[in-house]
Design a protein that fits this description.
DNA-binding; two-stranded antiparallel ribbon; Arc Repressor Mutant, subunit A; 2 strands; homodimer
DNA sequence: TCTACTGTAATAGATAACTAGTACAGAGGG
DNA sequence: CCCTCTGTACTAGTTATCTATTACAGTAGA
């Protein structure tokens, strides 16, 4: 229902949860005050250990995206949206920059690079989520 | 002189060596028959353990890019160029696809995505290597 | 109060990647 | 032969991540 986790992604699972949670807030899927799934529920859903989800949630608290209500759960904070909008741009920009640097070092022509990007953008274009 | 390694890259170090070696062959920096740096020399240069370089070289042998001359070193194989040209496209395409999928899931607008790509391309444009 | 949920914490174990150190066989130059 | 280079192999230890399990405190509803 919520996220998609790929264990063989290079990124740690908890990090994937953090990123996708931020993206959900930035994209308006999760709104201020809304409760997120409980640690155990999300862990079951993702077929992942509860500790891993708890760690992700702890990170999200540290980043001011979630706040805890003891005994009840965690909710999206008041100014989470603006934080996440900024974070989303930054996170994606960094990944793009890494790929482009590598492509540049490999002496792949920029036109060829643009072609790949456009091609892959077309490949994703139609679907929503 | 040769490569740039970033230990906190997500990618394993030996994998970075493999990729950059393939890119060097694809880009014409390394030619057929040319000797590559010895395990110990490259390890010293990259400030990395010799075992890590050895592992990368073993991968490159398995992929038919390098061949070993016992007691002398390793050299680029005859048909390494064409293999690496294909590998380069594939490796970069996969990374781009991963970023675009994530961006798509985050509901970032494609125009905004293109803007970031162009912006970062400009940022790299001038430099050679 | 009892029960079931919540987050949080702590411990131990598994696995992967990398480091550290040592050792061995082959090639080549003196 | 001796020395130095080459790749290769092995063991052990470190670190980070994730799993597995148990436990505890707070909240809420019957």
């Amino acid at each position: 229902m919520f996220f998609q986790i790929d264990p063989s992604n290079g990124l740690a699972i908890y990090d994937q949860v953090v990123r996708q949670m931020k993206f959900a807030v930035a994209g308006g899927v999760l709104r201020t005050g809304e409760m997120v799934p409980s640690v155990r529920e999300l862990a079951r859903e993702l077929a992942v250990n509860p500790n891993t989800v708890a760690r992700a949630y702890r990170c999200l608290q540290d980043d001011g995206v979630l706040e805890t209500f003891r005994g009840q759960g965690l909710a999206v904070t008041a100014n989470a949206r603006e934080r996440c909008l900024a974070d989303r741009l930054q996170l994606i920009r960094i990944r793009i920059q890494q790929v482009l640097v590598e492509a540049k070092q490999s002496r792949l022509a920029p036109q060829e690079l643009r072609a790949i990007v456009e091609e892959e953008l077309q490949g994703l274009g139609g679907r929503e989520e």
